[in-house]
Amino acid sequence: MRAHNPNELSSPGYRRTSPPDLESRAGPDDHDGLRLWLRLLTCCTLIEGDIRSRLRTEFETTLPRFDLMAQLQRVPEGMKMSELSRHMMVTNGNITGITDQLEKEGYVERLKVASDRRSSIIRLTPKGRRAFQKMADAHEHWIQVLFNGLSDKSRKSMFEALGELKLLAQTRLGSRG
């Protein structure tokens, strides 16, 4: 009798594994910077994918809708489309499409700017604030559960290391401008 290989699909004890991720593209001979970059991307992709899935199944919404509502939650008086576009780093067209959907559902409203008839202020309605608060509470819980799997020391070290990387990237990439 042949030895059991859990990686074979036909094995009785086969356990499905995750598909290859971005990090699996790197080999042992690749430089540490590339391997680190791919690990960061993999972590971000896994976490974002989970959040997208949870928002879709638990709230029947998308991450871009959640992000737009989060921006508006921080500015109760509302924001112009161009401000939303800049904060979310997407085109005005994307913001318009998401806003149209949210407006139809009663989550946001458009208010004309008296001094500029072409501009509108977008803000959450009371219904939108309530809906967003439920999503935000769940989102916060998902993130806490995920990161509580790390020790306090690991979370602190990772936060500090990523802070260094952020500063380095801002300094180096900003100087290219």
Low-confidence stretches: 1-16
As a percent range, the share of helical residues equals 55-70%
Biggest sheet character: 3 strands, antiparallel
Rg for CA atoms: 22 Å
Instruction: Walk across the major sheet and give the strand order.
Output: 1-3-2
Shape: globular
Topology pattern, helix = H, strand = E: HHEHHEEHH
Q: Roughly what is the average pLDDT, rounded to an integer?
A: 85
Discrete helix count: 6
Alpha-carbon distance between the termini? 65 Å
Percent of residues in beta strands: 5-15%
Q: What structural class do you assign from the helix and strand content?
A: mainly alpha
Query: How many strand elements?
Result: 3
Structural commentary:
There is one protein chain. The chain has 177 residues and is mainly α. It is built from six helices and three strands. Strands 1-3-2 form a three-stranded antiparallel sheet. Strand 2 and strand 3 form a beta hairpin. Helix 2 packs across helix 5 and helix 3 crosses helix 4. It is globular, with a radius of gyration of 22 Å.
